[in-house]
C-alpha cells in the first residue's frame, strides 16, 4: 500500500522531464529552422544559366558602345518628392539621345525589391520618372536606352542585337547620397 502512495503520475517525475525536455526543444527548434529556411532561402541558379552566360559577350559589347559614344548619366533621386531625374550626355555629336530610358534597380539581397523604372525625356538630354516607393540602403543600377522593361526571352534577345544599344552600370548607397554619376570606366 505504501507503493501506491509514493507513486506519482509520470508528468510529475523529474526523470521524465529530464529525458523529454531536450527532445521537445529539438523538435521546436528544428521546426523554426525549417520555416526560416523555406521563407528566406537563397536564390537558386537559374535553369538557363548557360544561355545567360552566352549573353555576357553582348553585354560587354553594350559597354563598349557606351564607351565609344562617351555616354554618361547623372542620376538624382528626390526622396521627399518621390521622383528621379537623369541628365544624359554623349561626347559623340552624331549620336541622337533616346526618347526614353530604362533604369534597373537591383537590390543586392532581396530580389523581391528589384525595380524597373522607365524614364521619359522632358527636355533634350533630361529624363524624369516617379518612384513608387522610397529606396533605402544600397542598390545596383543598370541603365539601358529605350523601354527594356518588358521581359524578353533570352534567345529572342540574342537575335535582336542592336548595334547602337549601350549600357551603363553603377551603384548607389542611399545612406550616404541621393545622386550618382554613371560612366564607363
TrEMBL record:
It comes from the Bacteria. The keyword Transmembrane helix applies. The chain crosses the membrane at residues 14-34. This is Nitrogen fixation protein FixH. InterPro entries: FixH (IPR008620). Keywords: Membrane, Transmembrane, Transmembrane helix.
Amino acid at each position: 500500500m505504501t507503493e501506491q502512495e509514493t507513486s506519482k503520475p509520470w508528468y510529475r517525475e523529474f526523470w521524465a522531464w529530464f529525458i523529454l525536455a531536450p527532445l521537445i526543444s529539438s523538435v521546436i527548434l528544428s521546426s523554426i529552422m525549417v520555416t526560416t529556411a523555406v521563407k528566406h532561402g537563397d536564390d537558386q541558379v537559374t535553369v538557363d544559366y548557360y544561355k545567360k552566360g552566352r549573353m555576357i559577350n553582348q553585354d560587354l559589347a553594350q559597354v563598349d558602345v557606351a564607351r565609344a559614344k562617351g555616354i554618361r548619366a547623372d542620376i538624382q533621386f528626390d526622396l521627399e518628392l518621390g521622383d528621379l531625374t537623369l541628365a544624359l550626355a554623349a561626347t559623340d555629336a552624331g549620336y541622337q539621345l533616346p526618347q526614353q530610358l530604362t533604369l534597373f534597380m537591383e537590390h543586392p539581397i532581396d530580389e523581391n525589391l528589384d525595380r524597373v523604372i522607365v524614364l521619359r525625356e522632358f527636355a533634350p538630354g533630361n529624363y524624369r520618372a516617379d518612384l513608387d516607393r522610397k529606396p533605402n540602403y544600397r542598390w545596383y543600377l543598370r541603365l539601358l536606352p529605350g523601354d527594356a522593361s518588358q521581359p524578353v526571352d533570352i534567345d529572342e534577345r540574342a537575335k535582336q542585337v542592336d548595334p547602337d544599344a549601350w549600357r551603363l552600370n553603377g551603384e548607389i548607397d542611399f545612406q550616404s547620397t541621393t545622386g550618382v554619376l554613371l560612366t564607363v570606366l
